[in-house]
Amino acid sequence: MAFRRKPGRYTLPLIQHPPQPAVLSVMDPASLKYAKTHEWVRVEGDVATVGITDFAVRQLTDLVYIELPSPGRTLAAGEEFGVIESVKAASDLYAPVGGEVLQANESLADDLSVLSADAFGQGWMIRMKIADRSSLDKLLDRAAYEEHCRSEEH
Amino acid sequence: MPEQLLHTACHDWHCQRGARMVDFAGWHMPVQYTTVVEEHQAVRQRAGAFDIAHMGRLRFAGPDAGDVLDYLLTADVEEMHSGQVRYALVCNASGGILDDVLVYRFPEFHLLVVNASNRTKILTWIEEQSGGFDFQIADDTFDHFMLAIQGPLALEILNPLVKDDIAEIAYYHATQDNVMGVEAIVSRTGYTGEDGFEVIIPAEHGPRLWEALMERGEPHGLRPAGLGARDTLRLEAAMPLYGHELNETIDPFTAGLSFAVQLNKPAFLGKEALLAAKARDDRPKRVGLVLSGRRIARENSTLYAGEREVGRVTSGTFSPTLEKSLAMGYVARDVADVGAPLEVDIRGRREAATVVKLPFYKRS
Fold first, then answer.
1. What is the mean pLDDT of residues A137-141?
2. What is the pTM assigned to this prediction?
3. Do B243 and A85 touch (CB under 8 A)?
């Protein structure tokens, strides 16, 4: 996901916010892989589950709309697979790995608060059949991703 | 480069509170403390406090202070009584809007509150255009702090800090009064569509006033509110924002601001062009739009009637009060009537949008 700049009065992100309580999720964030554009991936066999991180959800705030792809669509690693929109801006979602979309989490459209409550669990966005495992090697582990977030905050 | 940005007197309070700070017109300002929607709802249901010290405050004094403002502004300043506040426009010779402003009249001086983004432009404009008038102008922007407290509880939260009863202040009126022991200006004005007040106080007393309001108000639901909520609130109330609905190529009649133009007064800047603009019947019109889905029509999105391009969006948001995607924009007159079915192109896909009566929200 990338923070797309809204033309006009203010720009994202230039952030200082209070420490947030740790989000308790069924998924352990340490076991996931991360893209610099704030998507996470969980790999089980040749299936990847993709979502966006709690950091990204906190940056966005005020989510109003999400658009996810239909099953059957083939995505290249780095390709835009959807859009998430907040009151302030629309942000593209990028596929961290290449492959075919098996399933999209349609229930998110009705209740985006799930993303704030459980970004790494119930907030999953798509499941993909991995076509190209080499793109997984370019993703960050949790420590590297946290470091990346700190650098974006400054 | 926050160190190069201007700071209001309460800048450190916002940072300590954990606000998300942004560059707004060269000022380091809070865009939100929690979420836009929470702050928006606080203003609609209880009260919100906004640091608006970035707004430019220009003080006019001297024998021709009223006359020069009458010449520079579209509103009738001469006939204002002391304690009155008026919305007005600064127009160029072609009738284009250079800024939208509030003018306050007091016995000793007039005050002009201008947009932060236009302050230096307006100072230059005044310098260029005011030859022959005997007056003095002082830029009080940095010496004074300004806040807005808005919402149904604004009156009772602010009142105990002001010497006189502010319930007596009528809408669009102001008093010079004692606030926490200091001479200040209190006006019944705002940019949210709610009842509320704006206070101007010497900058060194700004943090003391802000903290006193928070201490008194927070137990009753007052919240600090940032530029994000200020934008969603003003959009619901259909108030134009300079740089979006207003710019130097748009005249006040097209913008739907004829109430701010007094064409009967003697010569003023832009008068001839404004007379001509008013007579034209091919002007586009500023309209409100309600979208069918939840996607937001951002600024510059194209509007269509069938396959015909009929205009552009100037502001759009998701309305926390109406829970709908709303927009304002300019469209051709023949498709500007309430109920007209239009479409807006959002990222390459059309969404149905219906022209509705403005404002979107009016307090009951």
1. 94
2. 0.92
3. no
